[in-house]
Amino acid sequence: MKTLLIKINPPGLDRKKIQLAADIIKRGGLVAFPTETVYGLGADALNTNAVLRLFEAKKRPFDNPPIVHLADPEAIYPLVRHVSQKAKQLMEQFWPGPLTLIFKHSNMVPKQTVTNLDTIAIRIPNHPITRALLKQANCPIAAPSANLSGKPSPTTAQHVLEDLDGYIDALIDGGATEIGVESTVVDLSVDPPVLLRPGGTPYEALKTVLDDLKLHPFVQTEVELSLKKTASPGMKHKHYAPKAPVILVEGPQEAVTTKILTLTTTFKQTGHKVAVLATDETQKAYQADIVKSMGSRFNLVIVAQNLFRLLREVDAPGVDVILAEGVSTEGLGLAIMNRLRKAAGYHIIKAN
Ligand code: TXA
Ligand code: MG
């Protein structure tokens, strides 16, 4: 299959180009598009065949449902059973935006779209292209991140092509995404509500509305947890992992740098090619084969923007090991550290 490339330069929105993409979705096709978080791969959420094609294209396990995207909050009512007062407050304050909410779903939702669960994940994205596409397609769009299962989520159209060129009908190239990590997932189908995946909306911000919000143990774990008790199917699947092993070094900045310098020397002495994911403050200290800065340790917005691109870039031919610096877990840091810990397969060294 040839993947149609549709180039749109924001902020200029080209209705005709978006209609082309909307028509493909209406006909049961697969279209990748930018959102404010990462690129998504969209299909009509009410078309069973289209949804099954989504799973196939991404090689995604059939037990891990996609997020359903809608143009506006009112559109959730036919899809869900109940919207609590708490949910309404969250929707008011954080939608459109990088927040996904889990509800019990109505009978209207095909079981393939929710992989037989009794709940559905819904988000109203905040990106002009995504919103125009949702309006013009006039259907809910199921959209997991537009990467091959297991790879870092795509933050540019180029990343989508690397993974899915020839396997999807079209790709809207709208430039690099702004936030760089996926949406925060909050389960409202249980009481108290639980944060299942940290993302673009910080836990601290959600707490101001949901004072009883709990963090699922998977969110902040520093060790691999047993896979039996997963509340979110995505938790148990391997994710964000480059081909070379990643070692994450956590602790105070100076201790981290010292540890990474020692590890670099050891690996180089044994003939290994080393890549380091550093920060602006530490980048110059390293003499590895590849050194990339994620951004300043004091500006996690930039670190989040760069993270997935750099995980792809350090995954270069010949690299034997990737040494990554940990950052703070405050604000966006919780999402960043969750992705880095997963990428490292929980191979974490504490430097003191
Ligand atoms: O920012 C984002 O959320 C991006 C953009 C494209 O919107 N989408 C995204 O989708 O990251 P995906 O499919 O890669 O991740 C969806 C996550 C998975 O971890 C999945 O397990 C979880 O949401 N999820 C989906 N439905 C669920 C449900 N009913 N209960 C619990 N978790 C669910
Ligand atoms: Mg994903």
Task: Please describe what this structure looks like.
- By secondary structure, this protein is α/β, with parallel strands linked by helices.
- The protein folds into two domains: 217 residues, DHBP synthase (Alpha-Beta Complex), CATH 3.90.870.10; 105 residues, 3-Layer(aba) Sandwich (Rossmann fold), CATH 3.40.50.11030.
- It is built from ten helices and 16 strands.
- The strands form two sheets. An eleven-stranded mixed beta sheet has the order 1-8-2-3-7-4-6-5-9-10-11, sandwiched between helices. Strands 14-13-15-12-16 form a five-stranded parallel beta sheet, sandwiched between helices.
- A hairpin with a 6-residue loop joins strand 9 and strand 10.
- Helix 1 packs across helix 4.
- It is globular.
- It starts with a strand and ends with a strand.
- Bound molecules: threonylcarbamoyladenylate and magnesium ion.
- Threonylcarbamoyladenylate binds next to strand 5, strand 6 and strand 10.
Features:
Rossmann fold; DHBP synthase; 2 domains; alpha/beta; binds threonylcarbamoyladenylate; eleven-stranded mixed sheet; binds magnesium ion; 18% strand; five-stranded parallel sheet
